[in-house]
Amino acid sequence: MTSAPIAAATDDVVTEPLGTVIDPDEFTPRLLALLSNALVYRESHELRRQFKLGTNEWRVISALSMRPGMSATEVCEFLGMNKAVVSRSVTRLQLRTLIVLSDGPRGSRPLYLTRAGAEMHDKMLPVSMRGHEIITAGLEASEVAALNEVLRGMLSRIRNDAALQGAPGSPSQYPID
Question: Which partner for 80 in 3, 54, 122, 174 could form a disulfide, CB atoms 3.0-4.6 Å apart?
Fold first, then answer.
């Protein structure tokens, strides 16, 4: 497929780079996004290949391993994930008998890992931890602690940005812990 030629006598088409642009190699938000995307892709690919589950299911399993009995709503808040995504993940995990829902009103029913879910957690954990190892390779423990402190500070600042307060899905809704 070839693109259509630009009309010769048009003043509305910008064909040269603008004078003021972002340097993509020095723009920290872009670099963080690329890093995050690469880590999620790597993790998701491995989890699907090995376990036929994705990163979203892993996040739910991991959250319940730390906080058994959370409701789906609490999982959403804890992970900073969309309700529809968590709902689909919970359904998949239930079908695989990796989690169970206890009695309670819809949206507040406690979720628990089954024994099979706990075993799956232990099998999936190394895939996720590999991402941590990639990021922290060559760093001293004190440097990792300092990096994590900087990242937590960045998350806090973005959550507190007045322009984002209350916007649906805004980072201000994502918990730090």
Answer: 174
Domain ranges of the chain: 28-131
3-state secondary structure the chain: CCCCCCCCCCCCCCCCCCCCCCCCCCCHHHHHHHHHHHHHHHHHHHHHHHHCCCHHHHHHHHHHHHCCCCCHHHHHHHHCCCHHHHHHHHHHHHHCCCEEECCCCCCCCCEEECHHHHHHHHHHHHHHHHHHHHHHCCCCHHHHHHHHHHHHHHHHHHHHCHHHCCCCCCHHHCCCC
Domain 28-131 annotated CATH 3.20.20.70: no
In this model, does residue 177 exceed pLDDT 50? no
Taking residue 140's Cβ as centre, other Cβ atoms within 10 Å add up to 9
Give the chain's largest Cα–Cα span. 70
